[in-house]
Amino acid sequence: MIHRCWILWDKKLRFAAVPLTLAVTSSATFHIVNAVKICVSSASTKLPDWFVPLATASFVLAFGVDCITTCLLALRLTLMHPKTALRTNATETWKSFTYPRIAVSIFIDSGVPIVIAHLTVLRLYSLQSPWFQSASSPATMISGLMTTVIILRDEMGPLHLRNTYFQPYHIAHEYYMGIDQPEA
After folding, report:
1. DSSP-based three-state secondary structure for 1
2. Where are its TM segments located (predicted)?
3. Most buried pick, 54, 71, 73, 85, via CB within 10 A?
4. Hey, how many other C-beta atoms are within 10 angstroms of the C-beta on 140?
5. Taking the model in full, what pTM does it have?
6. CA gap 121, 66 in Å, rounded
7. 25 confidence band (pLDDT: 50, 70, 90)
């Protein structure tokens, strides 16, 4: 997501610097948490009192990366789209049902479901809830699937040029029947 944010903001380092710094810090914190966990499990002793706050800090830093990149992506996608309310008459856009489609596209393309999944896991971990283990696997799947969806949607071209409509039945039928294909 950081790379995508950097690309969409015309490769300006100032838009990737803060998320990148937080990501490196989060990764370092995560490695410290894992090292402590390995040392404690091999020595069969109790986890130190500072372990849960440190692990929570690792999650919070990663969540901060997600929030910042998602906000930057949503802002950039909104500014880039020619039919958003920032550029056109919002009343006309709402009447044609264009704006809800744009809002859903920006919601997906900016990675908001990843932030929601990450927030859920972070909250359950900070509460030391028994549901943490149950929620972390689906959250990981959501993060992986959303990243794949975002990559596929990027391959579809710019947000405002995507054809998200279904073809009418008669066009698809003529194509499959070979009516509109040239003679060999």
Report:
1. coil
2. 51-75, 102-125, 131-152
3. 73
4. 13
5. 0.67
6. 13
7. very high
Question: Cβ distance 20 to 2 under 8 Å?
Answer: yes
Per residue in 60-73, pLDDT (tens digit) is 898 899 899 999 98
- The DSSP secondary structure of 111-172, one letter per residue, reads THHHHHHHHHHHHHHHTT-TTHHHHHHHHHHHHHHHHHHHHHHHHT--GGG---SPPPHHHH
Distance between CA atoms of residues 41 and 140, nearest Å: 25
Contact 16, 68 (CB under 8 A): no
- For residues 159-170, b (16+ Cβ closer than 10 Å) or e, as one string? beeeeeeeeeee
Higher pLDDT, 181 or 1: 1
